[in-house]
Amino acid sequence: MQDFLGNLATRASVLKGVLPLSRTAALRDALAGVQLASMDIPQVLGYARIAGMPAVTGLYTVFLPLIAFAFFGASRHLVVAADSATATIFASRLSTMAPVSSAEYASLAAMVALLTAALLFVARIFRLGFLADFLSRTVLVGFLAGVGVQVGIAMLGDMLGLTGHAARSVDQLVLVARDWARLDVPTLAISVLVVVAVLFFKRVWPRLPVPLIAVVAGIAASDMYGFAARGIAVLGPVAGSLPPLRMPSVTWEQMLDLVPVAASCFVMIVAQSAAASRVFAERHHEATDTNADLLGIAAANAAAAFSGAFVVNGSPTQTAMADQAGTRSQFAQIVFAAVVVVVLLLFSRFLQYLPRCILASIVFTIAVGLIDLTTLLAIRRESPGEFALAVFTAAAVVLIGVEHGILVAVALSLLRHVRHSYRPHTMILAPGDDGVWVPVPAIPGSQTAPGLIVYRFGADLFYANDHFFVDDARRLIDHAPSTVRWFVVDASAITDLDYSASRSVGELCGVLKRSGIKVIFARVNPYLRSDMDRHGITPIIDESCIFGTLHEALRAAGVDQPVAK
């Protein structure tokens, strides 16, 4: 049976996140799925509140969407469900189009999910998963740290028993500071007890399901002692039934108005899901397939749309919860979905007694776990510049929101890369202590040997750095201790030459040639040689001055000197 399923999955490109699965692993993931359900079910009820949807729709997001992603997705760790970022994005727009929690509002939310699924499917067709490659590990660490801080701040109101809620982290802190005198002491005491218990047992007995114990104990105590009557906020009534399957019903004009909302959700999903799946895949030394995950999330959002739910996303918070619970494949999420069915049919009425502060405290401890101080300190020690990027990413997520913060972080990553390409490291070969030529920084006033400069440019040549190449070469030649007769370009790092750079390089070679300086290109790969031929540089310097190795180029310059590799 295992072999049959494996062959089916390979041929149909499905169940990548589930198989291979041994009997032992299935038992482990089943237990982890039950524990994850105990932690996540209250959380998705809270996300439904943020989304402006009936509480039961939060449970719907962890039923059919979970199964759809487990079937079509590739990540073994990503939990695709309701998420605060996407819920906030569409709720802010939909609340201006229909009354919150109304039937019309629910139809609009379902259509946003369907449009988002369509955009994700198009992205899968055109293999746009590469967009996630622009998220460096540094950005991912900072991103998750920012998400952790943001989620932690968002939980403060419920943990303190305050009624105020704001979408932005800064506004939430202002509300907490303003209403601090009105905090509810019993609510705060319960919150502190849960947070301390979860964090303590996470260190001394990590397998003990403290969140599950807290949820069950909280429901029992709330029912027995009447927490709601004593001023401790509880979730309230939660309707229990399986989701009705139907097509979202909206007008053509409404659908057009929802396209920008779906596009915002799409960008958020691609960025956040890729970040989460990559972080946890790297943690467990596994490969990622972002394009397959796009298909899985598209299927999950389609399932959400047809089952009366709302946009689902690959959530870093819930994926961290799953990892903490011990899940190692999507089989745990399938078990999670089965638990949700049982809850919907039999136990949903008990959730109304769950204190909000217990839910918030559990989520707060997960948020703390997203802040990887060990890795941040390692980045700071090894690369202060990248550490600044990570901190800025975290700050951007907290200050301007997840959806904008991650885009700013990606833009900074690209700018950092472009800056390196714009001013790459340049070197020349110079005599070492043992007489062997070794690479040293290209500083004006130094040369390889009397009459000879061997110059290495550390990036591709394109329109933004061609003037840097030309100016650097001229400075080295003009300030050389002796008259330069041979200028050898070590092109080992140059794989591409665009039109603008070819004109600048061609003009430089022509000027040097007329000045009596012979230009030789060494370590020229086939791609660069093709560009040099196409752009007319080969005739300028002469075909006999282009070599595939450095030793051949040096022999052409009349030099036979050992060079360090």
What's the topology here?
Elements: H1 2-12, H2 23-51, H3 55-60, H4 64-72, E1 80-81, H5 84-94, H6 103-125, H7 137-160, H8 169-178, H9 185-204, H10 210-225, H11 252-283, H12 290-306, E2 313-314, H13 316-325, H14 331-347, H15 356-369, H16 373-382, H17 384-400, H18 402-422, E3 426-431, E4 437-441, E5 452-457, H19 466-478, E6 486-490, H20 499-514, E7 518-522, H21 526-534, H22 537-541, H23 550-556
Features:
565 residues, mainly alpha, Transcription Regulator spoIIAA, 2 domains, five-stranded mixed sheet, two-stranded antiparallel ribbon, 23 helices, 7 strands
Write up this protein:
With 565 residues, this protein is mainly α. The protein has 2 domains: 414 residues, no CATH class; 133 residues, STAS domain (Transcription Regulator spoIIAA). The protein contains 23 helices and 7 strands. The strands form 2 sheets. The protein has a 5-stranded mixed β-sheet, sandwiched between helices. It has a two-stranded antiparallel sheet with strand order 1-2. Strand 5, helix 19 and strand 6 form a beta-alpha-beta unit. Helix 2 packs parallel to helix 5, helix 6 crosses helix 11 and helix 16 packs across helix 17.
